[in-house]
Amino acid sequence: MAMRLLSPSTPPPLFPSPGPKAPASVSASSSSYLSVRLRRARAASAASGAAASGGSDRDGGRFEGEAMSGAFDRGLAEIARKVPLFEPAADGELAAAAGERPLPINLELWLYRVKVHTRKFEFPEAEKLLDKCISFWPEDGRPYVALGKLFSKQSRYDKARAVYERGCQATQGENPYIWQCWAVLESKGGNIRRARELFDAATVADAKHIAAWHGWAILEIKQGNIKKARNLLGKALKYCGGNEYIYQTLALLEAKAERFEQARTLFEQATQSNPKSCASWLAWAQVEMRAGNNTMARNLFEKAVQASPKNRFSWHVWALFEANEGNIDSARKLLKIGHAVNPKDPVILQSLALLEYNFSSANVARVLFRKASQIDPRHQPVWIAWGWMEWKEGNARTARALYQRALSVNSTNECAARCLQAWGVLEQRAGNYTAARRLLRSSLNINSQSEVTWMTWAALEEEQGDPVRAEEIRNLYFQQRTEVVDDASWVMGFLDIIDPALDSVKKLLNLDQPSGPTRQDDVKSTARSSAARESSETSAAVGSDTPGLTSNDAGNNGREATRTPTNDFDLDRFIKKRLALDPAELDAVLEGSDPRGVVSQRRKQRLPRKPLPVP
């Protein structure tokens, strides 16, 4: 008896044979056909069950071929229940569930997803992925580094140390990146001795790991061991070759020692190593500005913005330079360009607010301060500068509230020390001498090396008619200060072989602070003068983020000879071409930016995508 098992319109399925492997096209078509048949079989199985419960009278009139086809479908349904359909799992999860190591590409995908989760502050999801990476690839050091940094961002330092230690054991101490990250963590925590040991271990693991050499050198610079730092930088050049960060750090050391010719030689080598290094151009411009070569400094600032048009430091530092030179309109324009390019940066708005306060009005400055505080409420210098401005305007109560807001963010860092010093000056001028002494003492408990705070306290005691106590305070400052000794003997013969890096662009560009100790007689005479008192008022308000934006500096340094650049750099044409910004709409961009969801105007002016060509 002939029976029709398959429909004549559909081709019979192709099953694999034990012979040679079938072509990919055939196997793909057969697998897709089987999948469709299995799905139909499952549906038919469910339908047959419903039909069985409903009775057999409905099938009485069907012909015999359909009955046999239903039996075949029921057989397929039985197979479908035993053989699950293939549904591929994402990113190796199927292999992970089976206890097998996924393909190496999954490690790269998971690490990328960790970066995405971290940017979105989804720390638990990132931690889970990194734990999976460590479980399947314990010999790879990248998951340990990423997990340690993730814990550090959450201030979970004990867990970060445990992760780094576990990573060093898993990699048998041969991964220098883990040692270096661990050393940086201990350095930030103040464990200097342990940090030195870890940096040493990183250089032993890989002598060509330049970040370890440079990080160790920066640690020694902060501790005042300049000779040791130069020795480490020399070893970095010996083992790793030329690097713009090494040249740059050595040049800054030379500039702080006022050896400008050696600094220029090093900066030239740094910019030759990487012409696109914006930090090298900025640092060189700062050195030339300190040496009095303002025309060359301006040309270097122009090269810095050309090397990195979106870099916020380039626009900010250039604007501060122009403000110090008396070019207020140029400074205001540069700060507006910097804000248009970096709308989420509160530092640029802080500098612009101080500029407007000095040369425009306090109301305009208040609007800018408020906008900057909304962009980043945890940026302490904004609150400190705003409080200083309100104190200058006679609003002591508002200034105290703003200082208190700054201390609520963090009461133990350098910004807190400046805030306490400024608050102490406020209370001193208000006649609350007991509160002023307490605030100045609290500031010194955080930063005992602040010369301005010590001399402000001494001036307070002199005003109260106690010169003996004032002299004791000055002597106490000279007794506890950290001596920084610089040695120039390394220069001879070393420039021939030197080829590290910035610990932070903000800190290394702050060249206004003296590198060595000041003479005692000079400090005493400065403390007794009224200029020292004025500097104590403004130092805490301006801070390290906005150096030099005071009315005295901007009013006394208007040099006509250096106001126009000597090259053919056209700023308006540059921002139109590279940043898609209209110079006439900078004010509109500043007024129309939303602090809670700022979006760069350049992104709104993107050209529409071209349609794909039709083949």
TrEMBL record:
Residues 526-541 have a biased composition (Low complexity). Residues 108-342 form the Pre-mRNA-splicing factor Syf1/CRNKL1-like C-terminal HAT-repeats domain. The keyword Metal-binding does not apply. It is found in: Nucleus. SMART domains: HAT (SM00386), TPR (SM00028). SUPFAM superfamilies: TPR-like (SSF48452). InterPro entries: HAT (IPR003107), HAT_Syf1_CNRKL1_C (IPR055430), Mbb1-like (IPR044624), TPR-like_helical_dom_sf (IPR011990), TPR_rpt (IPR019734). GO terms for biological process: mRNA processing. TPR repeats lie at residues 244-277. Keywords: Nucleus, Repeat, TPR repeat. Residues 1-27, 511-569, 585-615 are annotated as: Disordered. One of its GO terms (cellular component) is nucleus. GO terms for molecular function: mRNA binding. Residues 9-21 have a biased composition (Pro residues). This is Pre-mRNA-splicing factor Syf1/CRNKL1-like C-terminal HAT-repeats domain-containing protein. It comes from Sorghum bicolor (Sorghum).
